[in-house]
Write a structure and sequence with these properties.
21% of the residues are buried. By secondary structure, this protein is an alpha+beta fold. Helix content is 25%, strand content 41%. The protein has a single domain, classed as START domain (Alpha-D-Glucose-1,6-Bisphosphate, Chain A, domain 4, 2-Layer Sandwich). Helix 1 (29-37) crosses helix 2. An eight-stranded antiparallel β-sheet has the order 1-2-8-7-6-5-4-3.
């Protein structure tokens, strides 16, 4: 049972076009890793409520892709794709993330992001550190204006609930 709500922290490094995100979870690395890499689990937490995530396809391997939709309460679908570049099981993965259409064709009207996600064992669980690199400082600001910080923190709260089950 969770004793307190963990907080998602953000550190902006505009000069290097980076956003750092850190969050602790009260579960071991294996369980947290599975929640970040298995589509049936991702779909249960990735979208901030009342939105939900729905995986169209996932091939979690180097050179593989995850194509998913964020589905709004009115049925609106926003598709995203992650192209996995590097995977070190239960340690880290690196991927290129972009908004796209239902076929995975990238929508260049939105910023693209390069994610490095690292899983670190800590005394009472796992700390996940995410380093997101943008093409420009303007792209970083646009993602923040779109509500990324609030949405990602809400998704992390969903993950807390999933891990507590």
């Amino acid at each position: 049972m969770m004793t307190q709500q963990n907080q998602t922290t953000y550190t902006k490094d505009p000069s290097n076009k980076k956003l750092f995100v850190s969050r602790e979870f009260e579960a071991d690395v294996e369980k947290v890793w599975r929640a970040w890499t298995e589509p049936a689990l991702m779909d249960q937490w990735w979208a901030p409520k009342p939105w939900r995530a729905e995986t169209k396809s996932m091939d979690f391997r180097e050179g593989g892709k995850w194509l998913y939709a964020m589905i709004g309460p009115d049925g609106t679908k926003a598709y995203c794709i992650v192209n996995y570049e590097s995977i070190k099981p239960q340690k880290s993965f690196i991927g290129f993330d972009a908004f796209c259409d239902e076929n995975g064709i990238i929508n260049n009207d939105f910023p693209t992001m390069h994610w490095k996600v690292t899983f670190n064992p800590i005394e009472d669980g796992t700390r996940v550190d995410v380093e997101i690199t943008f093409k420009s400082e303007a792209d970083l600001e646009k993602i923040l204006e779109m509500g990324f910080k609030e949405g990602f923190a809400m998704a992390h709260n969903n993950l807390d609930e999933l891990l507590a089950k």
